[in-house]
Amino acid sequence: MDSAPKAYQWDFDLPSIIDPPPMLYRTLSVGIFQWLPKASGKGIKRSPASARVLGYMAEPDRIFAKAAELCRRLNAEATGPQGRPTWLQKQYSIPRPASVPPKHPPSDLRNSRNLRKAKDKVLKEILGPAGFVKGKHLFVRHVGNQIHGIEFQTATWGGVYFVNVGFHYDFLPSGPKLALDDKSGVTYHMIDLLNNNRLENWMRPTPYPGEWNYWGNMAEVQENVNKTSIDAVEVLNKLCRQWKDPADFLAQATPPNRFATQEYPGVSYHLSLIALHVGQIDLARDYMAVAARSDKEYQFYWPAIETLRRRLDKLSG
After folding, report:
1. Which end of the chain is more exposed for a tag (fewer CB within 10 A), N or C?
2. Taking all residues of the chain, what is their mean pLDDT, rounded to a whole number?
């Protein structure tokens, strides 16, 4: 963007590039606008965008180059308040970079056959020796009082998958189901685990891919599944040591008075149970109070919260 724009000059937005690198298919839209005199006669202001240039953030320079090209032509042809020229399209699309595969692979490659084969092999060679078994929805491991989960989640459009990693204690009920009948975790979904997130978020601050292809070259698919499995196991091994004592997990949790929202009671309810487990009754009561202020949408938690309240009242009485 010009550091000293003039009235009726055409310009374009120059947004900051996301760091770490964005997900593979993320796009960027750059607006092209004109500087116009203010009604007061003092200074200039931006007009609404007259056109936009859309492209992939994998190659943002191509987006900016097209926007700059359009601005040069507009500025060469316009010297006053003529407004938007007729030749200017509302949107210009930059072709997909060669480094970005088609979002929708051919139908014969879009199925998850390669991923299933790769997961079967990685269970035998990497996850199994690390103590994981194949559960109903996840690869799970029960270590001491902990449950660890790894999930290869396929995208709805096919062709790519994400890796989710979760951590839980076996003395806690599972997430939204609030069930205690499975201390092994073999029936769990990822959302049943107290602390779950994408692998790339666990890997921070190191930049890490957010999605992986499972169509095409089988050797490459297997290599990626192996890599993500090894990295996920390393993350969980670290968490296993770091949170061996539930009191240490509790010490790193968001304090009750710092919760940004109170709509979803699951986290605060489980933290209350952890506090009760380690004998921190006052803290358990504070987390329980946060959970009790949940929205009606989550009223299925209310009986469990009321049971916990009575239990805490007996301990304090």
Report:
1. C
2. 84
